[in-house]
Design brief:
alpha/beta; Immunoglobulin-like; 8 strands; 2 domains; 4-stranded antiparallel sheet
């Protein structure tokens, strides 16, 4: 009778005896072990309720954000919330490529966003979070494209990623 079921069975018997006596103060002035069981059980139920409530709240928030993004995208009013950062470098020497153009691939769906890398090759492009491609170009180098973004079920409505890009010299 050392199993969990045996322990609960013993506590249930104590509780049943207290109820059978019809003593309204039996639980308050009676067995302290029984009172501890009720307090512990109440705390567990409250914690389980709070966790379930939090998970349901998170699910509704996330699905609302997904529907909102889809609706704004369909209406043509999507706001950029995905930050892509990194450094544009030479593929052979790994030196930074200054002033490289980093932009959404023009083959993709509008709106398209664009930025330029700084003198040290570092760039930050804020774009839409959906999966698409970036086009990177600089004079004297071949253009490159890299995939970015996340599918809806894998990412949150806001976020970012780091993409270091390596360009080859034109022959």
């Amino acid at each position: 009778m050392s199993s969990r079921a045996g322990i609960w069975k013993r506590y249930w018997r104590k509780f049943k005896r207290a109820l059978d006596r019809r003593d309204e103060f039996a639980l308050e002035s009676g067995d302290p072990e029984l009172r501890e069981i009720f307090v512990r059980s109440a705390l567990r139920v409250a914690a389980a309720f709070a966790i379930i409530f939090g998970l349901v709240f998170f699910a509704f928030w996330w699905s609302g954000a997904a529907v909102g993004f889809g609706a704004s995208r369909a209406a043509g009013k999507a706001q950029p919330t995905w930050a892509v950062t990194g450094t544009v470098r030479d593929a052979v020497t790994h030196d930074p490529v200054p002033w490289a153009a980093v932009e959404d691939d023009p083959i993709g769906r509008p709106p398209l966003f664009r930025t330029d890398a700084g003198y040290s090759g570092v760039y930050e492009l804020v774009t839409l979070p959906e999966p698409h491609r970036l086009k990177i170009s600089s004079p004297g180098y071949e253009s490159a494209t890299v995939p970015i973004g996340r599918a809806w079920f894998l990412w949150m409505p806001r976020g970012g990623e780091k993409q270091d890009i390596y360009l080859l010299h034109t022959p």
